[in-house]
Amino acid sequence: MSSIIIDRLTADDGTLECSVRASADLERFVTDEPFRTSYDVPIADVPDGVLAIPVLAQICPVAWANGADVYVDEVDATFARALEDVAESLSAMYDFIDGGTLYARSTIDPDPEGTDETGLLFTGGVDSTYSYVRHREESPTLISVRGWTITPDAGDDEKWDALRTRVSSFAREHDCETAFVESNMLSFLDHPMLLAHYKRHVDGGWYSSVGHGLGLLGLCAPMAYARGMTDLYVAATHWEGIDLEWGSRPDIDDRVRWAGTQCHHDGYDLTRQERLDRIADYVRTEAPTLQLQTCNDRMDGNCGACEKCYRTAVGLRLSGLEPDDHGYPFDDGDYHRLRRSLERGEWVLGQDERHMWADIRERARDTAPATPAERTFFEWLESVDLDDLISASEPPLSHRLLRAGARNTPNAVYNTAYPAWTAAKAGLRLVRSDK
Fold first, then answer.
1. What is the three-state SS of 162-213?
2. pLDDT tens digit sequence for 352-386
3. Domain locations along the chain
C-alpha cells in the first residue's frame, strides 16, 4: 500500500520540525531531510493538530498524485475537511490526481482567540501590492516566505536579506506589521523527480502548477494561529476567463482553512493590467514614490532586462506611470530589445505569460501610443501570433530527455545516480514564481 507517514513533530520556540517517511514506491519523491519551518513568533503553545498543517499542505498533493494514504498523529478537523475540498479541486483539474486518505489518531477542533488580524502573502510585486491597496484599511500583516523563489541555501542569504529589508521598509511606511517564514518546503521533497514525472502534465513546475496555493497558505497556519489571524489573503496571478491549470486558484485557495482562519484568493476579478490601473490610482493619490519589485533575477531592485521586468514596465506605461519612477529602468529603445528577445525565444514562457501579453495587447488597442517606438511595438504586438512566442520557448531537448530518463529509472538505480541528476537539475526550470 502506498503511504506517507508524518512523525516526530516538534515545536521549539519558533521552529517546527518533523520527519517524513514514504513507502518504497514513493521513496524517490522524499529526501532524507526533515521538514523544517521557522517563524518569528513563538509556536510552542500551538496544538499539534495545527502544527501538522504546514507539512501536510506540502505532502498531500504528492500523495494524491500517487493514490497514497497519509498518516499523522493529530490534525485540525477544519483543515482535514479543507484537504478533502482541495483534493476535489485538484482532481477536477488534473487526471493524475487519484486521491488518497488522510488517517489521524485524533482530530482536534480548537477555539483560538481571534484578534481580527488579517494577513497578506506579500512580495511587493504587482499582484500582492494591489491586494495591499485593496485591503489597506485592514492594515494587514505582510507575510514573506523564504523557501520557493528564494531558497534556504546560504547562497540566497543576500536575496532574503534584501527582501526582508524592502518589505520591512514598506510596512513601516504604511503602518503594517510583518511576518517572515523560512522553510525547506521544496528541498525536503525531491522536486526534480516530481518535475520528471509530472512536467508532461503541467505548464510550469510542480509547485507552481500543483502545490503552491495550498502549500504557501498551509505554511502560515502555526503563525496565523499564534497571532489570532482570522483572514489570510493570497494575491491572484490570473483572472476570470483564464482557465489554466495552476496551483493557486479560487477553487483551491478559498477552500483552505483551519481553526480560526479562513483563506482568500484575492483580486481574481481584475486582470493584471487592471490591477496596475488601481495601483496607479493609489500612486497618484497617496504614494507617488511607490516601488514595485517583480524581477526573478534579483531582490534588491529590478534588472530591467528580463521578460517580467519588461512586461511590468510596459504595463506601467499603459496605466499612465513612468516605469523609471517605480523601479524599472526603461526607455524607448527597450521596445526594440523586448521585441527581439520575444521573437528569438530567449525566455521560457508558458500559457500564463501568453494571457498576460494578450491583456497588454487588449489595453494597447484603446491607448494612444506616446512615442513612435511605442507605436511600432504595439503594432507588432497586434500582428504577432502569441502562440508562436510560446512554442519558440520550449526547453532544450536535453532537458526533456533528462526528465524522461529520471522518470523511468528504477528506484535503486535512481538512488545511485542521484548525485549526477542533482548536478544536472540546475539547468531545469523547477518552479515559476508569481507573475
1. HHHHHHHHHHHHCCCCEEEEEECCCCCECHHHHHHHHHHHCCCCHHHHHHHH
2. 899 999 999 999 999 999 999 999 999 999 999 99
3. 290-391
